[in-house]
Amino acid sequence: MSWLKRIFSGLERVAERRRYPRYPASAPLEIDVDGATMECRLDNVSAGGVRLTPAVAVQMGALVTVRHSSSGLALQGRVVGQDDESTRVKFDSEDAGIVVSSWLRMANSAEDDERSRS
Fold first, then answer.
1. Could you please report the per-residue DSSP string of 33-45?
2. d(CA 29, CA 15)
3. Which of 14, 46, 87, 89 is the S-S candidate for 56 at Cβ 3.0 to 4.6 Å?
C-alpha cells in the first residue's frame, strides 16, 4: 500500500519513455501522403520524430514524407499519433538527426532574423 501512496503523492515518477530529447521549434514544413502535399508547421522535433501542427488528416500508421520545402531536406516516417491539434510522425531513418539538426538551425536563424527586424 505504501507504493500506492508514493505514486499519488508525486514521490515516484514515471520513467521517461522517449529515446531522444525533444526541441521546440517553429518552421513551415510540408507533409506528403499518397501523392498529396499538405502544409503544416514544425512544433517540436527530435532525432526520432516530429510533431506537426495543425493536425493533418492522415491515417494512423500511414507512410509519409516530411519536407522542408525551401531547403529540400526530407525524411520519411510513419504517423504514430494524432489529436485535435497535431500529428506525430516517427522517422524511419536512423540518420534523421542530421536532417533534424539542419531544421533546428534553420528555424533558429529564422527566429533570429525576425527578432532583428523588430
1. ETTEEEEEEEEEE
2. 31
3. 87
Per-residue pLDDT tens digits for 4-61: 444 455 544 444 456 788 888 888 999 999 999 999 998 998 889 999 999 998 999 9
List strand residue ranges (DSSP E) for 1-118, in order.
23-33, 36-45, 49-53, 63-68, 73-82, 87-91
Long-range contacts from 87-90, C-beta under 8 angstroms, 24+ separation: 87/31, 87/40, 87/51, 87/52, 87/53, 87/55, 87/56, 87/58, 88/49, 88/50, 88/51, 88/52, 89/31, 89/49, 89/50, 89/52, 89/64, 90/48, 90/49
CA 19/CA 65 separation, integer angstroms: 21
pTM: 0.74
Comparing CA positions, the residue from 65, 73, 64, 78 lying closest to residue 103 is 73
CA-to-CA distance for 67 and 79, rounded, in angstroms? 14
C-alpha cell at 115: 527578432
